Amino acid sequence: MRNQGCQELTLSSLLIAALCLEAVLMDFTVYIPPERMTWTEARLYCQRNHTDLVTGNIVETDLLANWLETVDVKKLWIGLHRDPEKDSAWKWINVKTGEGVSGHDLSQSGNWAGEKQSSQCAAVEDDLLWYSVNCSNEYNVYCSAGDKILHHNVVLSWYKAIQYCQNNMSDLATITNTNKDYLKSSGWIGLYHKAGGSWSWIGDSSSDYRNWAPREPRAADCGSLNPVPNKWNSEVCSRELHFVCYEDDLVVVNENKTWEEAMTHCKRMNTPCVDAPETCIYKNEILNLEKLQDYSYVRDRIYRATTDEVWTGLRFLGGEWWWMNGKEPQSQGILPECPSHRNHCGTLSKYDTNNWITRDCSERRNFLCFRRKKPLM
User: Fold this and answer.
1) Looking at the structure, do residues 131 and 57 belong to the same domain, yes or no?
2) CA dist list (Å): 268 to 20, 135, 285, 299
3) What pTM value is reported for the model?
């Protein structure tokens, strides 16, 4: 059940970036539940109660940020995460599979705040405790010199510190229990964090010794949105923040029914609107795709169907192909003019095709419903 205290906004003007602008208008509603959660908890909540965490390829973040300002919400979790397979890459979550990340590397996007998406590296502070900080920060440098560790009074980022030590015939320092007393002031050491992994020492050296400050180490692998500057930030995934979910108008029904049964099932799925149950109802019908030029989002949404194809509202009636809302398909040419006796119903495959497929209406498969808000008369 949705939490009645959540903020919500229907973004009917925010088309999916992958869809053509003249395509059928698909409403996306965003929700901000009142709870604060970790990134993982937030994503599970969104998947259970809505569709998923918001991503920038689903909803335009500029318009989303403008709305978030009006509801006075600060930093929120969004569906952005460091790629577990490539430490330097950040990607949107994979809505298609419901797990992991997918798409293009966003690490160089101009949407990042100043702290950006840098990895986490270990630095010694003046209290001689270790802290997890962005690798792009600048500190003095500790280089290993045989059994000793030397402090170098240069100010560099962690990556440049590696080069500096190598240019001085040494390595960024590995700290052990026997050489820890060489640490006298702030500076980089050779400990860093890889996304999805553990903290490791650079090079071939290893050490079990740690001297972390309280509540450290931090490893920022999850993305948040700060609406006021409309910038992304990398955050420690265990931090509890507000978050923003989205919901579309598609309902994938993982039940195997004939085409007629699927159409009837969709019509019987009518439910009261969450925000106005006494004056509004969600009306469902089997999905009609008559104006949808790019099927990519719909195909992603049916990826987790248990059948390779799902029923749509395409039907051969009176010698013509029709959508069940009374519209004709835009391109009749890809449909048989005289289909076989039984293949009078249309499906959409979840695998690499934008064409309609005609099937025997008595076959049983999953299906796709489309939901709209309707006022109660």
Assistant:
1) no
2) 31, 56, 9, 24
3) 0.69
Question: Is there a contact between 246 and 50 (Cβ–Cβ < 8 Å)?
Answer: yes
The identity of residue 154, as a single letter, is V
Q: Dump the DSSP string for 86-139.
A: -TT-EEEE-TTTSSSEESS--TT-TTB-TTTTPPEEEEE-TTS-EEEEETTS-E
Q: Which residues contact 216 (CB under 8 A, 6 or more apart)?
A: 129, 130, 131, 132
3-state SS assignment for residue 328: coil
- Same domain? For 255 and 300 the reply is yes
Phi and psi angles of residue 232, each rounded to the nearest 5 degrees, phi first: -85, 150
Per-residue burial over 329-357, b if 16 or more Cβ lie within 10 Å, else e, is beeeeebeeeeeeeebbbbbbbeeeeebb
Residue 68: closest CA among 11, 111, 24: 11
Is residue 124 located within the same domain as residue 270?
no
Express each pLDDT in 114-136 by its tens digit.
655 556 889 999 999 999 887 88
Q: Residue 22 burial by CB count (10 A; 0-12/13-18/19+): exposed, middle or buried?
A: exposed
Q: Evaluate whether residue 207 is within a structural domain.
A: no
Same domain, 242 and 106: yes
Nearest to 207 by CA among 144, 287, 132: 144
Predicted confidence (pLDDT) per residue in 239-256, tens digit: 899 999 998 888 999 999
Q: What is the CATH number of the domain that holds 306?
A: 3.10.100.10
My answer on whether 261 and 367 are in the same domain is yes
Is residue 265 within 8 Å of 255, Cβ to Cβ? yes
Indicate whether 357 and 263 sit together in one domain.
Answer: yes
Distance CA 161, CA 143 (A): 9
The tally of domains found in the chain comes to 3
CA distance 107 to 115: 12
